[in-house]
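Write out the bound-state structure for S-adenosylmethionine.
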Amino acid sequence: MEHISVLLNEAIDSLGIKPDGIYVDATLGRAGHSSKILEKIPNGHLYCFDKDETAIKESQEKLTRIASNFTIIHSDFSHLKEELEKLGVSQVDGILADLGVSSPQFDDPSRGFSYRYEARLDMRMDQSQSLDAYYVINNYEVGRLAKIISDYGEDKDAYRIAKAIEKQRSLQPIVTTFDLVEIIKKAKSPKELAKKGHPAKQTFQAIRIEVNDEKGALEALLRDGPGLLKKDGRLSIITFMSLDDRLVKKAYQNLTVIEGDRKGFILPEDIKTPDYHLLTKKPILPSLEEEKANPRSASAKLRTLVRD
Ligand SMILES: C[S@@+](CC[C@H](N)C(=O)[O-])C[C@H]1O[C@@H](n2cnc3c(N)ncnc32)[C@H](O)[C@@H]1O
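---
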């Protein structure tokens, strides 16, 4: 399936693009956002990151049709700072990250991301990485598995599911997505099974986050991204899970509020004012039309940090 870019115009507007600016798309995907950025920077440069070779190959062709002032970097965006440094770039005008998996990754049965298709347990965004879902499911100690399913999947039955995985794999390895779906269905309590949505959704999400170290990557972006911005530079992040949104919100808050909320008070001169502000106090959400046209966008939230 084609990837439909989420909050496309909103994300581009949030970057306040300058025609000669230096921009980073941390999550190239199918180049939806990157194409728009590239069209707006005739005298600038765009650096794009993705760790999925298929995404890079397809997007390379797409971007080449627009212009040549871009560089694609096959790397996890957790190495954003070092990778840009290698290219002599220490400050940029804007960084965009549109987190998570793309539709082509999710809808390609062979990638093993989806509980809807039978495939070997894989879930790697980066096909050259060795850790995959098969390893996590068949080797992680039960307590660690339960914590991952609870923390990243927010599944109330995390421990029951982890125990069921442990029991099943002691008989024979758990090989496919459907094997895992069956184990989850049997392990879940009737109360949880009665809830809306696929019973395996949360566990699959949790395992995917672990395999791709999505939390570690977001933390690295929130640690290094703000410091890479020039004055008036923007860091825009689109999240799809409350877990990620909470991390972004908290990191932005820490950078924009000094010593608690001092709104309405005149600050003493010796107190440093923050170096950043929020572009909008509330996150930007998709319009109803976008939600209708692309249900995947429903949970999206865009937050932008601006350097003063
Ligand atoms: C939601 S898609 C981005 C879609 C893109 N904005 C578009 O409009 O086509 C996310 C992409 O980021 C990549 N990705 C996710 N986490 C990454 C990370 N930590 N480092 C590098 N690439 C990552 C995925 O492989 C996927 O291709």
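---
Residues 214-228 form the longest helix (15 residues).
The first strand starts at residue 22 and ends at 25.
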